[in-house]
Design goal:
By secondary structure, this protein is of the alpha+beta class. The protein has 13 helices and twelve strands. The protein is 25% helix and 15% strand. The longest helix has 18 residues. The chain binds protoporphyrin IX containing FE. The site of protoporphyrin IX containing FE has 27 residues, from strand 4, strand 5, strand 6 and helix 9.
């Protein structure tokens, strides 16, 4: 449209109107009623009171008043894009998931990247974990791989999730800090939660300040299960590897970018996709069986552990290409509902207690956030394959069963029926034991992998970790919390612990934290840190 040719009409009070006609539709109410004047409320005389009879005004304001829905309780700030997943080769040997059977098959996908701790309006370059949630609209229902850009997690059991999130979000009395982990509550919780040490090393590393979403890895984190047509099961860890490689900014840059352009990451994704520069990731898998799992000195059900890629290489099985931005941010990116429990036949769960808890949490939270059990009726959440069920009614039901039948079995020869052959069958793993609240001993080594991560970093990266810990802990006002953190660092890398303690002005070095399992000694301590100068 020509912005200089707007066909404006001046009203009685000098206000400007634009009229329908000449190809412009008539403005209507939500009920479809045509609107004559959208600039003035209905009044008794031009200078008189507004009257309640003005249904157009009331409907317009009513709708506006209810525009906001609760932001996600975590991962509130996010940005999404559409694309597709392309299968490289038939993966039938490991899974019966239909979309993974044929080379070259493309399946539509939607991805939402996010930060975790900040509110919806927070800035993009917070030091934080990034969500990497992928919905693949397979022909056997949606598969949601709701992952992060870090392959491990803070806690081993979902029952601790409210605690870690309460601790990282703004402190309840003062309502700050908004999007930083640098505060007493967070570090208090972490220092009392040794299982978080591996994750903390990643969060203090450059991984937590990515250059853009396009330069991040993604991880399913948990051990999942693949099941093939012969009902044979293989354990699997999922990895997304960016075509562009990994890039981060340094803290100094992150702080400046946050001030200058808090939308830096979303703008980057928008501009890349709008200019045809489509970001791409390979989906890789680490595959293993029970025997291989038993050969580790950690537990594959423990989400604070990785399986080193040197030990078990990641095999690529397909690629994800993001090639289209949503038409509407709210309808798609805000209303998309990811749920770990969305799996097609051929993909299943392990007994990881964090995963098991997540499988409850996501469905529950969608009702709160989206307001209706019918959130699957929203186009972004609806499956793209045929679907038939007897669920009905509820708020905003868009599609109820048609005809007489809304139950089964029935005598009327109507409606969908069960399918023992193609239906989802949970893998019949053998499970037995006492009903207990008991963390397995195999989850107790909290330091070895933290140390392994640290020593695998290059000298500049190690220096960044030391600087990040120093900066973050310098914001902690309670000396005992700082010291408790240093006592954990002593179990990870002594040079690192000394460096941080000195920078924090801790004159008397605390003792190393009591470790349930001593960190592995066969890992090389880091020679690199000796070159840290500042
Ligand atoms: C949201 C990842 C652990 C509860 C999210 C999102 C991601 C994610 C990526 C954002 C989804 C989106 O973009 O819409 C993870 C990962 C975890 C983890 C990788 C650990 C490995 C947990 C746990 C719980 C939980 C243990 C609860 C027991 C939630 C909730 C939301 C959420 C309630 C908000 C969902 C929504 O409103 O749409 N998580 N999460 N998460 N997560 Fe997790």
């Amino acid at each position: 449209a020509n912005v200089h040719d707007q066909q404006l009409h001046r009203g009685n009070g000098g206000e400007l109107h634009q009229f329908a006609g000449d190809g412009y539709d008539v403005l209507t109410t939500a009920q479809g009623g045509p609107v004559d004047d959208d600039q003035n409320t209905l009044r008794v005389g031009a200078r008189g009171p507004v009257i309640i009879e003005d249904f157009h005004f009331r409907e317009k304001i009513f709708h506006f008043d209810h525009e906001r829905i609760p932001e996600r309780v975590v991962h509130a700030r996010g940005y999404g894009a559409h694309g597709y997943f392309e299968t490289y080769e038939s993966f039938a040997h490991y899974t019966k998931a239909d979309f993974l059977q044929r080379a070259g098959e493309k399946t539509p996908a939607f991805v939402r990247f996010s930060t975790v701790a900040g509110s919806k309006g927070s800035f993009d370059l917070a030091r934080d974990v990034r969500g990497f949630a992928v919905k693949i609209y397979t022909n056997e229902g949606n598969w949601d791989l709701v992952g992060n850009n870090i392959p491990v997690f803070f806690i081993q059991d979902a029952i601790k999730f409210p605690d870690i999130i309460h601790a990282v979000k703004p402190e309840p009395d003062r309502a700050f800090p908004q999007a930083q982990s640098a505060h007493d509550n967070f570090w208090d919780f972490i220092s009392l939660t040794p299982e978080s040490m591996h994750m903390i090393m990643w969060v203090m590393s450059d991984r937590a300040i990515p250059r853009s979403f396009r330069f991040m890895e993604g991880f399913g984190v948990h051990t999942f299960r693949l099941v093939n047509a012969k009902e044979e099961s293989t354990f699997v860890k999922f990895h997304w590897k960016p075509k562009l490689g990994l890039q981060s900014v340094v803290w100094n840059e992150a702080v400046k970018i946050n001030g200058a352009d808090p939308d830096f990451h979303r703008r980057d994704l928008w501009q890349a996709i709008q200019s045809g520069n489509f970001p791409e990731w390979e989906l890789g898998v680490q595959l293993f069986d029970e025997d291989f799992a038993d050969s580790f000195d950690f537990d594959v059900l423990d989400p604070t552990k990785i399986i080193p890629e040197e030990t078990l290489p990641v095999q690529p099985i397909g690629r994800l290409v993001l090639d289209r931005m949503p038409d509407n941010f709210f309808a798609e990116t805000e209303q998309v509902a990811f749920m770990t429990q969305n799996v097609p036949p051929g993909i299943g769960f392990s007994n990881d207690p964090l995963l098991q808890g997540r499988n409850f949490s996501y469905l529950d939270t969608q009702l709160k956030r989206l307001g209706s059990t019918n959130f699957t009726h929203l186009p972004i959440n609806a499956p793209k394959c045929p679907f038939h069920h007897f669920q009905q009614d509820g708020h905003m039901a868009m599609s109820n069963p048609s005809g007489r039948v809304n139950y089964q079995p029935n005598s009327w020869g109507e409606g969908p029926r069960e399918s023992p052959d193609s239906g989802y069958r949970h893998f019949p793993s053998e499970e037995a034991g006492q009903k207990v609240r008991l963390r397995p001993e195999s989850f107790a080594d909290h330091y070895s992998q933290a140390r392994q991560f640290f020593i695998s970093q290059t000298p500049p990266e190690q220096r960044h970790i030391a600087m990040a810990l120093t900066f973050e802990l310098s914001k902690v006002e309670t000396p005992a919390i700082r010291e408790r953190m240093v006592s954990h660092l002593l179990n990870i890398d002594e040079t690192l612990a000394n460096k941080v303690a000195t920078a924090l002005g801790i004159s008397e070095m605390p003792k190393a934290a009591d470790a349930a399992v001593q960190p592995r000694q066969d890992l090389e301590p880091s020679p690199a840190l000796s070159i840290i100068e500042n």
